[in-house]
Amino acid sequence: MSADRANVAKDRPGVLAPPPLLFAAAFLGGWFGRGLLPIRVLLVPAVVLAGLSGTLAGWAFFVMARAKTNVDPYQPTTALVCVGPFAFTRNPLYLAMTLAFVSASLWTGWLFALSLLPLVLAVLYLGVIRREERYLQAKFGEEYRAYRLRVRRWI
């Protein structure tokens, strides 16, 4: 392997799994357990959360594209984005996925899926967020440290 390829291979956070896959796996688990804890479908809150999720995700994708950095955690981060939704939360895409997960659980009436959310968030934190934070700290140094002090992880 050439030195350039080795550096490119190292220039990524090394996340455990793609975050959407974590949420999808938990929702699939909710499908298997859908009869265990059924609740009445809560359509209005589900639609509101879906709208918030879509808006937040779209805004974050737009801001990242404008900054010409990768959304895919398996690709190198080329810029530290601190504007748009990133000025309010360090993880707007993960927040959007969480809102979408809650929305889908309410829409389907699968309380069991909602009961899996703390597990998803723990795996997301340990297997993705912490690794990304170490990577960003190593890559952007003081600039990232200052950003972490200024902006909360979630909201």
Could you tell me the strand content as a percent range? under 5%
Shape: globular
SSE ordering: HHHHHHH
Largest sheet: none
Mean pLDDT, to the nearest integer, reads 90
* Residue windows where pLDDT falls under 50 for at least 5 positions: 1-8
What is the gyration radius calculated from CA atoms?
A: 17 Å
State the end-to-end distance. Answer: 42 Å
User: How many H/I helical runs?
Assistant: 7
Using DSSP, what is the number of strands? Answer: 0
Helix content: 55-70%
Structural class from helices and strands?
A: mainly alpha
Q: What this model shows, in words?
A:
This protein has 155 residues and is an all-alpha fold. It has 7 helices and no strands. The protein has helices at 3-10, 19-32, 43-66, 92-108, 111-115, 117-140, 142-150. The longest helix has 24 residues, at 43-66. The radius of gyration is 17 Å and the shape is globular.
Topology:
Blueprint: H1 3-10, H2 19-32, H3 43-66, H4 92-108, H5 111-115, H6 117-140, H7 142-150
Helix pairs in contact: 2-4, 2-6, 3-4, 6-7
Write a short abstract of this structure.
The chain is mainly α and 155 residues long. It has helices spanning 3-10, 19-32, 43-66, 92-108, 111-115, 117-140, 142-150.
